[in-house]
Design brief:
The chain is of the alpha+beta class. The protein is built from 2 helices and 4 strands, in the order βαβββα.
């Protein structure tokens, strides 16, 4: 998975970088090392003059493997925003996978019913 990290109005500390790498490893596990997948991550502050409220922003855009997933979150803490955006992305990836599996099972059940109906 090709990953690009962009920061806006915030510096990327080693602790934040390690935190991002931990979450990126979970996504790489889902894609099983597919190098055609592109993942763009942006973290930063929404404004430079506010000190309270939802001022930290994180977004992720995953393109590839027949998918186009975008998730974003604004929270009062940068790490909380990162947690939320990655959980939204993982949810979107797994729910799509479950829908594909359910569709295949439904189609197989219909086909089985048709075969049983012909040979009964």
């Amino acid at each position: 998975m090709n990953t690009h990290i962009k920061t806006t109005s915030v510096t990327l500390t080693p602790a934040t970088s390690e935190y991002l790498k931990k979450h990126i490893a979970k996504l790489e596990h889902i894609f099983a090392g597919d190098e055609s997948v592109k993942c763009d991550i942006e973290i930063g502050r929404t404004t430079s003059h506010h000190n309270k409220g939802d001022i930290f922003r994180a977004e992720i855009h995953i393109v590839g493997h027949k998918q186009n997933i975008f998730a974003e979150a604004e929270r009062s803490d940068l790490l909380i925003a990162i947690d939320e955006v990655f959980s939204d992305a993982v949810y979107a990836l797994t729910s799509r996978r479950k829908k594909v599996i359910a569709s295949a099972r439904r189609g197989g059940a219909i086909l089985k019913g048709m075969i049983k109906g012909l040979w009964s």
